[in-house]
Amino acid sequence: MTLTIVLLGAAALIGIGLYGALSQQSFVMLMMGLELMLNGALLAIIGFWSLALGGMPQGQLLAIIIMAVMAVEMSIGFALIVAVYRKRQADMTESIGTLKQ
Amino acid sequence: MIDLLVALLAAFAVWTGWRVFRVDSMVRASFSLMLSFIAVGGIGVLLSAPYIGVATVFMMAVEMMVMAIFMVMFMMNPAGLNPMSMVHQHRFSIGAGIVAAVALGAAVLLSPLPSDPVLSETDVVADLGHELLGPSMLIFETAGVTLLATMVGAVILSSRQGRYGDSDEGSRPPGLTPDGDPAGRQPEEGGGHDHHGGHG
Asked: A12, A78, B51, B182 - which has most CB atoms within 10 Å?
């Protein structure tokens, strides 16, 4: 029962994060959507590890890897935002539309 | 009891996650995201993963402070006094989010979930330490090297210029059509970037 609750919460977090990552125009808000999806993944991993794996230590290792992914995503993401802003004075996705070509 | 607390924390995490895209100030959005992470950390502590839970709380508290600084740098709506809605392809995004959440939720509800909870006498933190510095040491070390590469990459990406000046000085992007105008926005002439030095 607890596992179901936790996994439903994780599914909702991933859905909200996907909505944010697809809909936000500002780069920083877009990254909050990505973070929210990783948050959902972390929640699901904690739930599975605690309630379905019988305490296998590899489950906790996976959670630590998710945290490392969060740190990488955040630092490289912000570095890219700063670099794009320096080059193009752009802080919105629409401003770099020529990438589509 | 644990069930109820976990359900409350999960609902709180989802609600604050939703608030991230509904508040009017980007700083408030980042603190809302922090609350969502703290709720997830609390679930970790409740579900006998104290190390993961506490590490999540600590890491996210610091990360969201950094994020709040970036929010101030790139803020569109200072102080959140006006309604803020900076969205594109809104309907598609709502649809994609709902479809993803409903599909994952249906998968959760329809599949037979295993039940093998951690025994209360298990020493989970010591287990994790032995795993990290034992059989899974390669993974752990790889994560460390990845973080080092991230630091180098972030510094290189965000530095103002390379050792020999701007990396794209004198360069001309290829045209969109043969012999056409160069792609991309033309850089402003006359050192227009310099007055943004305060952002560095």
From this structure: A12
